Amino acid sequence: MSEHATNQATEAFLSYRNLLFTVAYEMLGSAADAEDVLQETWLRWVKADLAQVHDQRAYLIRITTRQALNRLRSMKLRKEAYVGSWLPEPLLTAPDVAEDVELAESVSMALMLVLETLSPTERAVFVLREVFDVSYDEISAAVGKSPAAVRQIAYRARQHVEARRPREAVSPSETRAALESFRRALEGGDLQGLLDVLAPEVVLVSDGGGIKQAAPRPVVSAGKVARFIVGGIGKAGVVLTGEPTVVNGNPALLLCVDGEIDGVIAARVEDARITGLYYVRNPHKLTRIASETPLTLH
Predict the structure, then answer these.
(1) Nearest to 164, CA basis, from 224, 122, 213, 197
(2) Which end of the chain is more exposed for a tag (fewer CB within 10 A), N or C?
(3) 36 pLDDT more than 50
(4) Region of residue 137 (left: phi > 0; alpha: psi -120 to 50; beta: else)
(5) Closest to 144 (Cα-Cα) out of 58, 62, 76
(6) What distance in Å separates the CA atoms of residue 204 and residue 188, rounded to the nearest whole number?
(7) What's residue 210's pLDDT?
(8) Above pLDDT 70, what percent of the chain?
(9) Which spans in 116-221 are helix H?
(10) For the segment 211-249, what is each residue's pLDDT rounded down to a tens digit?
(11) Local structure of residue 90 (DSSP, 8 states)
């Protein structure tokens, strides 16, 4: 490839890089794997004859989707061997992303967990169609299915997700308010304060990856979740502080012990109370966040 062609390819790739990363991340739930997919996409993109590419965006999405599908199938074995509950790798996102309700919901921890229940092809089709409004013909080329089959897959995936996603989207300010009440109760070891902000049916999912202590299974109900949190802090004998942040397009807390990152906690809020808590403690899933903050991991 000539220098001019290489420069053209580089410029095109960089212009769509954020889009391609988001497609890969929403399919995989892992920023590290998404970065690997982008590298694989780039290697294939620079070999393409750009004169024959009529729609660069569609072509790049097609390559990214195929690479992500290959990786998604291989990740299944890794997840089956994973110790305890698995949560997506949290991503720090700009505060203004949270104002884009559609994008914020599409990368939220709650929806990412719902996407985990889809088959690889269903997940790819849902992400491309529902989040990025890619045409059925383009999706067909990306996943290797006929447009008619893609329409059926999209319908099934949409029905599956709609049955499991939160009943209604809440404003970022409402989520921030609930998290602020949660943070005050957490830092003060206030059991009643936690019970006041947690919905009766709240579910806590914690991910330590077998490296950090975490509940092996989801903890259900306000009483059990509150006691689990307060008891855990008490046993550890540490002072836990929470710093407000924005993760996956939604308000969240960066939890720190002695000024160092312990984990990231995201929340699902309905009717001003927390119905879902997602606590990522696995250090391998926090390296990206650690590198983007002034704090350091152990």
Answers:
(1) 122
(2) C
(3) yes
(4) alpha
(5) 62
(6) 19
(7) 93
(8) 92
(9) 120-126, 136-143, 147-164, 172-188, 191-197
(10) 999 999 999 999 999 999 998 887 777 788 999 999 998
(11) P
